[in-house]
Amino acid sequence: MAAALPATVQAQTTDSPEEVPRWEGRGFAHVSVGVQPTGRTHVAAGSFDLYDEPATFEASVGTGAAAAVDLTGGIRLWENFAGMMSYTFYSDSAGAVVDARIPHPLFADMYATGSAEVGGLRHREQSVHLAVAYVLPLPALWDSRLMVFAGPSIIALSKGVVQDVTVQPGTQDVTGATTRNVSATTLGGHFGFDVQYPVTDRFGAGFLLRWSGGTADVPQVEGGKVKVGGLQVGVGIRYAF
To answer: Which CATH number describes the domain made up of 27-240?
Structure first.
């Protein structure tokens, strides 16, 4: 006689993967101030006719760390994704020593060297960044949020360059230099992140880190190219709605 034994069914439980916290906001607006620490050096060189011979000059102009301002706005597109647009402004001013090679007013191939100092050579960048952002709420970290973003950038450059040098008439004495502003616009790219800590339901504080880059055509500098953009670090006010 066969005995029917009850079958024991063991329920197996498996840990379901944790869901990514959902961002419930509709949009945001950010204001940040900080610094663009990237430093670069550009060499401007040129020539002009003097005493029926070519006179040449060269000036090395450096840009360094300077204040930067960022204004950002965005709106939720789908789930944790948002579309955002940012405007950044960076400006620095520097001086330069212009070295020149000046022909003799009477004798051919008899050059003399001279130099002059110029100041107020401004390097200014204005950028518009378009990006797709992913917003990740971090409830375990004081309800903060991490935003990661990337996209194209339009960077407009205005730069002061040395145009030529001035020479005392009838001599080889360099008395100064003239400058001019040149402009160029280029298409580049950017990526970065923003960490936001809420203070109230709407307002909070944030930390921004962005890298942007591009190359602008500037024929007045050596190589005809100027790199624009760089690392930007800032802190500021965050508003969510």
So the answer is: 2.40.160.20
